[in-house]
Amino acid sequence: MAKITYAVVEHDGGFAYRVGDVYSETFATHQAAHEAAESAAARQQLGGEDTQIQYQDADGNWREERAKGDQPPEAEVEDDLPADLEARDSKGRILSEDELPDPDRAPAGDIVSRGDK
Predict the structure, then answer these.
(1) What is the domain range of residue 31?
(2) Is 63 inside any structural domain?
(3) Where is the composition biased (Acidic residues) (predicted)?
(4) Range with the lowest mean pLDDT among 1-10, 39-48, 72-81?
């Protein structure tokens, strides 16, 4: 059986989960990224009908294959970050999801992703 690991990491001034070399969207808080990784891992393990899937491999090539619904992969979340690590501004204030800049539209500016000031 295949095994997939969702690793919670610091990413783009906030937090994300990573599977191989592919990152999720960026979350403002460590907790939000961890919860999203747990949810994705749980959904990955659901059985169902056979289906065609597409994915991008580590070399950037798109692949297509048939996934058997009765053989879902084993999925786990790996999170080695300190529990109190949160996205903060330059004054040390914890940022909310709404305050995290969109990494596609603006630079992160004064966001510091480490828990220490």
Answers:
(1) 3-82
(2) yes
(3) 73-83
(4) 39-48
